[in-house]
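Hello, quick one for you while I still have it in my head. Could you read through the record and tell me how the tokens relate to the sequence? No rush at all, and the record is pasted right below.
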Amino acid sequence: MKFMRDNSEIALTKEYKEQLEREKKEAEEKLQKEREEVERLKNEFSGLQRKYDTIMQNLTKRQFEYMPIDYQLDLLWHDMNRGVIKVDRKRKDTWYNHVKEVKEKNPLKTEWREELAEIQVEMHELVSNNTIEDL
């Protein structure tokens, strides 16, 4: 009977061991560089995100502080009408003359906004104090 010799363990040469160490070191250095790059990108993105958030926060605050556009346009028209902003009233087909014509055709009381707000409050109270669902 013959016995087979076990050759599964191969002796590593010194050069091969050094090559494996170099490859391991290179892989670790590459991984470290990638981690540093990821960290740099995260920091850069966070900085950009903070700038974006600041701008959006200020924009949102500004939008809520502006009066409604119809009120702003009404103020503009009144400034033009009083002469604060110069307008050629004789020219036709101008924004000023268009708004003037609409205002003359559909007059409103000066306190219409307050009256409307009061009506809305009354409507809300009526609905919230009533048990009828389809009011």
Remarks:
- Residues 13-66 form one domain.
